[in-house]
Amino acid sequence: MNSIQRAAEINRRDVLRIGGAGMLGLTLPRLLQAQETPRTGSGRAKSVIFLFQWGGPSHVDTFDMKLDAPSEYRTKYKPISTSVPGMNVCEHLPETAKVMHHFAQIRTVHHTMNNHNSAGYTALTGVEPAIDDQRLRDSLDLFPAFGSIVDHVAPADTGMPTFVSFPHRIADGSTVPGQGASFLGRGHDPLFVPNDPNAADFELPQLSLPSGVSASRLDDRRELQKLINRQAKGLDQTAAARGLDAYYEKAISMLNSRQVRQAFNLSDESEEIRQAYGRTTYGQSCLLARRLVESGVKFVTVYFDRSIGGRSKTSGGWDTHGFDDTRMYEILPARHLPLTDHTLPVLINDLERRGLLEDTLVMWFGEFGRTPKINKSISRDHWPKCYTTLLAGGGVRGGSVYGASDRYGAVPDRDPVTTGDLAATMYHAMGIDPSTEIHDNLNRPLPIANGRPVTQIFG
């Protein structure tokens, strides 16, 4: 009996899922025989931690301060010196200033998407959609997330999932595309963890076997099917037919994996290190990211917040426009800047102390920057035409700056970088050829990155 015939016999709910995202990205079976992936580039990054700054941080108020610009452009924050001679950052990032010698800055990233959903998709995939539409929704016509591509072309062989994301699914009205596997198949979706790592009872109950079900019973395929049926929420049958043997094998191995459970056990960390990262959802998420790459996860995406932001000093992402500029300049130093300053340098120092930084590429950026010119009534609006990204570790030459924006921070003055170039740079760091092809839902070959790597930032 072939796999399609077997698929026809299973219930449409025959898939083990977690919170709608799938167990460890295993809602669909994986191909057991991974394709041979061309190796190229620096290849020093074994893992990536992608700290996605949903809402869009202001580049001119943080890392690309235009101190000589006219007053209507110039930030109200003061500059402070950093560990790189001649480099300044915002006064509200004093700890981050101490680790800037680890970071390469690319100050000329740009695209054409002005709405959050389409810009978010662009930043998460390196590919622009056909139109700039705030109502953009996920579909098989859209490109997969970075981590899903890594899972497809160079999956982990450590016993750990390749791609993990947490603690939010970001949305602005509708869920932002580019957070999952799209046409690669749900088997390459991330393990999405919706639980708060800062909660006292943080755990992964979905990895625990139900009462009365022993590990040995899962060796019986019928028992596993019963377990699947109880926990499933629905599955398209054609997708289910993509090789059940791989699904069963990986489902069993993950359910039985002490290594997987242990990696998520934050209670193993000392109270000192947990306090160092900050007892916040984002802080503990960054700590969990370190634990996961240390355990062999290849790609971790941490989302800064669930929403784009707003008037709150206690929640929300970087989208603090829509009211007068005075209010914006009060919100950022009350929440976003100290939260960044309490996590980013701690993560970098912790990775270095554990000997992980050279093997781990850390990326920090959002979907766009902010308008250089301050609008007195709505502050700084969306600005995809030029913004700054930070990269550290994984062979990156710390303290370097690539590209320069004009005197206002409005457009690239030299060495412009597209989001496709940024994607190619990340794959280059991992030793994955950016010209590697994947096939879309119409079986058309597509390169994994529509750009060229910025090789100048590697030492």
CATH architecture of the largest domain: 3-Layer(aba) Sandwich
Multimeric state = single chain
Number of strands: 19
Give the count of helical stretches: 14
Describe the protein's architecture and organization.
With 459 residues, this protein is an alpha/beta fold. It folds into two domains: 1-30 and 205-263, no CATH class; 45-202 and 269-457, Alkaline Phosphatase, subunit A. 26% of the residues lie in helices and 14% in strands. It contains 14 helices and 19 strands. Strands 1, 4, 5, 8, 9, 10, 13, 14 and 17 form a nine-stranded mixed β-sheet that branches. A two-stranded antiparallel sheet has the order 2-3. The chain has a two-stranded antiparallel ribbon with strand order 6-7. A hairpin with a 1-residue loop joins strand 6 (171-172) and strand 7. The longest helix has 15 residues, at 281-295. It is globular. The protein starts with a helix and ends in a 12-residue tail after the last strand.
